[in-house]
Amino acid sequence: MSAAAAVWRGHGTTTTTINITRQILKCTRWQLEETTDFITCPYHYYCDSAYPGDLSPAIGALVAAFAAYCLLTTFFFTILDIVPRGAINSNGNTRRKYMVPSGPFLLPIVLLALAKGQRINAVFPVSRLGPALLLTLQASALAFRNEADGDLRYAVLEASTVSGILHAALYLDAAVLPFYTGTDALRWSRFSGECATCLCRMDPLVVGGNTVAYRGLSKTALAIIFALCSRMVCRIYGEERVSAWTRSALEVASWVFVAGDAVYLAGWAFAAAAEEEEGGVVIVVAAAAYALVAGLVFLCIFGKVYKFLAWVETRQVPWKPSVSCHNVV
Q1: Which residues are listed as membrane-spanning (predicted)?
Q2: In the prediction, which pLDDT does 12 show?
Q3: For the whole model, what pTM was predicted?
Q4: In sequence order, what DSSP letters do the residues of 214-251 get, joined into one string?
């Protein structure tokens, strides 16, 4: 936690120090050099990649507004699913799929934002807030099923969602893994002085570092992909007992993994904010964003449990005695 807070506070105030810190946090290729100092510098690394620079702050503002819209719409339609149908005028699933982040209209925009995430560092730094956008997408894909008239159209729509979830996880890792690696490098290394990014370490530098355990492409993303594929199989070939139980088990496991990621990231962000003495704006915003995403995930889980209990209640048959008064002698 302290490593992340130290990086978010920044290392130094001079322009040169800030540029070096940014280059380390954005480095995508580290080279290991041979060293003769096996006592104080057994591992000597330097950054062997160039950072093209940040995109315009206006793009970051657009991504921030889009992420807020995705979160609000997912909240809205989740509440709409919990409220009884007769109490509110619903627009139907057809319109909903064009307004949620997992739908065919907004999903490409999510992928574009994450694909350019490494260079988006103003207003909405994807390396720090990108996991919140991915969690919103994953919760939306699990909470709202795709609706289509024919099986072929449904299969294409569901397959595009599966592909989008996979690519979103890969794009996010391309943005956050260099940041996590640089965080670990700045925290547990010292500058050797041979070049601007030359670092001496006592242990090997691991991709993604050891400070943050979150990854975009993880068991959470794989469980969601399998759950969506099982939905597609059940829709096309019909829901038998085994396939229905398999789909339900995969969806439950996916919700457990998503909730675990949301709680972990929220706790990590709050711990970093607590260690921030000056109350950095980015850290406070990140803590609030991850808290809202965690609230969304648990609201979705509550909605699923509520609907399941309502379904169980409707399936219950009132008990009737087998012996009537006419049979009593």
Answers
A1: 58-77, 255-274, 280-302
A2: 44
A3: 0.86
A4: --SSSHHHHHHHHHHHHHHHHHHH---HHHHHHHHHHH
